[in-house]
């Protein structure tokens, strides 16, 4: 047990990192667009996520009331940029890999705290560590790619039915990207801690 403090921390960090990965995948504000035409987008702000784009409009409701309209991206929509499709796939993979890593780490810690000393403990930590790292890398790629798109104010050719301009006046990073960055840091730390486990030497005593 005294050798597994870092691995216990790896489980805690990995759990938080996996939760943040899941949260970032569900958030709609990956990219915050500021638009000058407020005829439909009343607030002048739209949120572009990896699954849908949303904005607030007063157009179809009574004065003084607001309603949020969202348009979901459909599979194989040609206008959706590559970084958004990559984020969809890679974050789903990251969530699955993180769950496998957590499961392997739980089994290893269970054996340790139950006093079961065998070589499978190190193997479980090895599997958990690699999967934590792979999960972190799967989050890092879409987060970095979308951050690059925001920094260069890249446009998206939305169809007319979306009531969205193809280019914003300006855009900024939404909450999902910093949440994803924190998830990456925690998952990579968790993987490093899991891989640092050293099995205690098991001595065999021969009775004569």
UniProtKB/TrEMBL annotation:
For molecular function, the Gene Ontology terms on record are: structural molecule activity
- Please give the GO cellular component terms listed in this UniProt entry: bicellular tight junction; plasma membrane
Transmembrane segments annotated in the record for this chain: 6-28, 40-59, 84-109, 121-145, 175-198
Localization per record: Cell junction, Tight junction; Cell membrane
Q: Which organism is it from?
A: Nothocercus nigrocapillus
The way this protein sits in the membrane is described as: Multi-pass membrane protein
Checking Gene3D superfamilies in the record gives:
1.20.140.150
Q: What is this protein called?
A: CLD34 protein
Which key words tag this protein in UniProt? Answer: Cell junction, Cell membrane, Membrane, Tight junction, Transmembrane, Transmembrane helix
Q: Report whether Transmembrane helix shows up as a keyword of the record.
A: yes
Does this entry carry the keyword Cell membrane? Answer: yes
Extent of the signal sequence: none
Its chief place of residence is other
Which family, according to UniProt? Belongs to the claudin family.
